[in-house]
User: What shape does this take?
Amino acid sequence: MKEEYNTLEKAFLSLKSEEEVKSFIKDLCTPAEIRAIEERWLIAQMLKEGGLSYRQISEETGSSTTTIGRVARFVNEENNNGYNLALGRLI
Assistant: This one.
């Protein structure tokens, strides 16, 4: 992909309010994609808070333990630190 078109990060950074971000995400993603992203974000929060097993998180969210395991890998093991950075700033 041409670099001049690959500016998703810059597009997010240009938005000035929660409502603008919400509108952009609604235009960018399908309802199913938004639900999946919101589900992963909820799982990340629950994992970071601790105290619940994958099975308990699954029961509370309706998510599969496979999805929970994938999110946990990024929260606990991967070097991207995206979840942890956002979670840390919101606490």
Remarks:
- The radius of gyration is 15 Å.
- Residues 47 and 53 are 9 Å apart (CA to CA).
- The first helix runs from residue 8 to 14.
